Amino acid sequence: MTQASPQDTLDILLARSQEARTPCGEGQLVWRIWGNHARPAVVLLHGGFGAWNHWVRNIPALEADYRVIVPDLPGCGDSDQPPARPDAESLASILSAGLDLVVREDTPFDLMGFSFGGLLAGPIAQIQSRRVRSLTIVGTPILGLTTTGPANALQPVPPDMAPEEAAPIYRRNLEKLMVHNPDAVDDLAMTLHMENMAKTRLRSRGIARRTIAADSLRGLACRMGFIYGAGDVTLDPDLDAVRAAAADIQPEAPFHVVPNTGHWVQYEAADRFNPLMARLLGAPA
Question: Is 1 among the domain residues?
Answer without folding.
Answer: no
